[in-house]
Amino acid sequence: MARIYKKETKKGIRWGFRVYMGTDPVTGKDIRKSKEGFLTQKDAKLAAALFERQINDGEYIQPSKMVFADLCNDWERYYSQDAKESSLRARHIALKHIINEYGQTPIQKINKKAYQDVIDKLATQFSTNYISSIHTSANMVFEYAHSLNLIKEIPTKGIKLPKKKKTVSDLENDNSINEKFLEKEELEEFLTVAKNEGLEGDLLAFTILAYTGLRIGEMVALKWSDIDFDHYTLRVIKTYYNPTNNKLKYTLLTPKTEGSIRTITIDPLLVDLLQLHKQEQDKVKEENRPFYKDNDFILATNEGYPKTIKHLSIRMQRILKKTSIQKQVTPHSFRHTHTSLLIEANVHIKEIQERLGHSDINTTMDIYAHMTKNIKKEASNKFSNLMKDLSKNLIN
Predict the structure, then answer these.
(1) In sequence order, what are the beta bridge partners of 14?
(2) Any idea where the domains of the chain sit in the sequence?
(3) Any idea where the Tyr recombinase domain is (predicted)?
(4) Disulfide check for 139: which of 2, 84, 156, 243 has CB 3.0–4.6 Å away?
(5) Residue 151 to residues 3, 62, 79, 111, 198: CA-CA distances in angstroms?
């Protein structure tokens, strides 16, 4: 029960209340909350009753001066217990944009309007996807604060993420769908140039990407123990992580998702290339035995370290310049290329999902929507054949 009292101040009589909140588990002393400055006894009683109800309903939030930057540091320590190093780094980078705005602001003073203003401001600087990443990271931090009763409401809930409206000109110039993968003829040209003018390991690396649909990090992490030459299979149980591109400072992590752990069948051509590469690599090991660090990597440098993703990206651009291909593709484009070719070969969507290592079928469906020109032409041809008789009647 709250105790109501009155107090004489320089501004006259003021009223206040004091409420018992329980016992401190550490010191064993009673915890009491006081508030004063009310003009009337009735105001003090109403405020006390509201306060007691909040305590009884578990809605009371203890005032805190914790600032957003400190909350982020606490959350990152908590998040790092289960998250991969790459995920933690991505969240850390995304949160920097919110910290730049509210780093030293007490978290209890950050409301929905203030947060929406920041998101709207950042949306003018970054892509829609990156804004979504920033928002998701911030939401995780505020949900963490709410779970600890540091804030009463989560300011990130119900926020509208801005979407950039495309103009007619943008749509006319949008080649993003076609730029995401190589057509079959373009892939043939690329791999032919890689064979004739590529450097050591180029043909194998880009054939693996194109013929398996592996993520480049999964490919770089491949070891000879992951290849079953008898059954023509390849297993994916790890991925390569190296944000600094220092060949010595890499980390092998578990794959992106549970669904990414998989064993796939590989083409006889790829098996032949792997066997030839192994023979060449054995010679390199023998020649460089004094300083070769053999960790069983397939795509290894002359010292035995796995090749970096940046190294392979540079090699890819070198080959592209020697082709007639005008697309701005990346190593990840081979994953889309592999998908489009599977679709063209009428492989079932579920099989594609398992081969690519997608945990969510919707992810596969999104990629499935990016059909190749050949598939679109085939659909047009089938329609023309279907409507052949009707078309003749319309002309004659």
Answers:
(1) 7
(2) 3-56, 68-147, 178-377
(3) 177-381
(4) 156
(5) 27, 8, 19, 10, 58
DSSP H helices in 81-127? 85-102, 112-123
DSSP state of 120: H
How many other C-beta atoms can be found within 10 angstroms of the C-beta atom of residue 47? 20
User: What is the C-alpha separation between 360 and 363, in angstroms, rounded?
Assistant: 6
Cα-based torsion angle of the residue sequence 291, 295, 296, 302 in order, rounded to the nearest 10 degrees: -30
Separation CA 110–CA 67 (nearest Å) = 10
**C-alpha–C-alpha distance, residues 12 and 16, integer Å:** 13
Tokens of 38: 């009310």
DSSP H or E segment with residue 7: strand 3-9
**What was the pLDDT predicted at 59?**
63
CATH number at 178-377:
1.10.443.10
**What pLDDT, on the 0 to 100 scale, is given for residue 358?**
83
**Rounded average pLDDT over 220-246:** 94
Residue carrying the six token digits 């023509």: 232
* Cα separation values, 106 from 14, 102, 141, Å: 29, 8, 14
Q: How would residue 171 be classed by pLDDT, with cut points 50, 70 and 90? A: very low
Task: Please compute the mean of the pLDDT values over residues 127-156 and round it to a whole number.
Answer: 91
pLDDT digits (tens, 9 = 90+) for 78-116: 998 888 888 899 999 999 999 999 999 999 899 999 999
Strand partners, 241: 251
Q: Is residue 316 over pLDDT 50?
A: yes
